[in-house]
Amino acid sequence: MKLVWFRRDLRVKDNIALTEACKSGEPVMAIYYETPIQWKSHGMAPIQADLIRRRLMVLQQDLEALNIPLLFRTVNTFSDINPSLAQLCQQYQIADIYCIRDHELDEVNRDNSIAGLLSLTSTKLNVFDYKCIFPPGSVINGAGNIYRVFTPFKKAWIARLQRENVAPIGTPEPVQINATVQALLKQPSSIEFHYHQDDSVGWPIDDNTIIQRMRDFCRYRVEQYEASRDFPAIPATSQLSPYLAIGAISPRQCLARLFSENQNCLDKSGGGAHVWLSELIWREFYQHITASYPDISKGKGFQSWTDSITWNGDELQFARWKQGRTGFPIVDAAMRQLNETGWMHNRLRMIVASFLVKDLHIDWRWGEKYFMSKLIDGDFAANNGGWQWSASVGTDAQPYFRVFNPTAQSKKFDPNVRFIRRWLKELESVPDEALHEPYRWAEKQGIDLAYPRPIVDHKAARETAISMFEMAKSQQNTQRAES
Question: Is Flavoprotein among the key words of this record (predicted)?
Answer without folding.
Answer: yes
